[in-house]
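Hey team,

Filing this mostly as a record. A colleague (T.K.) asked me to run one chain through the structure pipeline before their review meeting, and I want the input and output archived in the tracker in case anyone asks later how it was produced. No errors, nothing strange. Just documentation.

Input sequence:
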Amino acid sequence: MEAHGRTPTRRTLFRSGACLATAAIGLATTTPAHAGDRYRRRAAAYPPTHWIPASTSNYRVSSRPTSYPIDFIVIHVTQETFPDAMKIFQDPAKQVSAHYMVASADGYIGQFVREKDVAWHAGSKDYNNRSIGIEHEGWVDQPQWFTDEMYASSAALTAAVCDRYGIPRTRAHIIGHVEVPGTDHTDPGPLWDWDRYMDLVNGA
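Output structure:
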C-alpha cells in the first residue's frame, strides 16, 4: 500500500501494537495457520502471531506449496497505521491483503491470510502465487516506525518461513516490494535497513 502519510506522534507509535488484541476481539496467541504439518521440519520457531482474517474477497484460496512453490518473501511498508491497514484487508472492496503484518511499537504480528492461500500484495500474479507477503506498519520516509521490536519480530518470522519452505535466507529470495518486476511501489524504501534485517534473519 502506498498512501500519503502523516507524521506519527509518540502516542500513536506506542498505541499501535498494544491495542490490537482489543481491536481483534476474541483472538488468542496462536501458531500460524499453515498448509500442512508434513512441511514442518526442524527450523527457526515462528514468533507468536494472532489470526485476524482478511476478507475472503481479498485473497485466493489455494493449496500451496502443492499448487505453487513458495520461494520468495516480499517485504512491504503499509503507508498506514496497523489498525487502518487491518481495516483495508477486511474491506471486501479493496482487493488487497498480506499474509502477515508487523506492528511498530512492540513487534506484534497479525496473520491475515493462511500461508497455503495466495494473498494479493505484490502487484504481480506470479509473485503473489510464489511468495509470502509481510507488511510493516509505518511510512517509508519516517524511519522512526522501524523499531528494534519490529525488526526483531519480523526477522524471526521471515527466518521461520524460509526454513519451513526451504527458501534461502538471501536477498535474492527476501525482497522488497520495490523489487517485484513491473511494480510501481517503492516500499520498503531506502530507509529500511536491509543489512541489519538480513543479519537478524540469518541469526535467528
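Quick notes for T.K.: The two ends are 28 Å apart (CA to CA). The chain has six helices and nine strands.
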